[in-house]
Design brief:
alpha+beta; Nuclear Transport Factor 2, Chain: A; seven-stranded mixed sheet; disordered N terminus
Amino acid sequence: MIRLSLRRAVLVVLALAVAGLPSCGVVSDPQAEAELIRAIEHQRIGALVAANMEVARQLHADDFQLVDPTGSTLSKDQFLGEVASGEIDFLVWEPQALDVRVYGQAAVIRYQSQIEVVVGGQKIPRGGFWHTDSYEKRDGRWQAVWEQTTEIR
């Protein structure tokens, strides 16, 4: 019976994982993919501000989930439904520089923004927020899968 040390076992698992990377969809030009994701995030924000549900639905994965500044979670249907109904009405959403990290068929973006929004008829004054979003490339196109927004106080 062969006994591997924990360190050797970890190294074997890592070696197997690295060996399998090409089949996991390694991005040939991460910089170009990062620029594409930035453009898609700007398009997604624009669609939410304009309440353009056709575009917004395409840019959010079916299993999308938002963690809002209150800590509540909303599914794609809940979030986009509230935007479509006017329950959530983004008046201003101005992102600053978007930092993007691409990991094969997944990417993480992080940025600050200024948002002014009406929620449930109550106007939330313009303020600063941090966003951390996860994107996945599915069927050849990038979609937002997770978003967490934190108010800057």
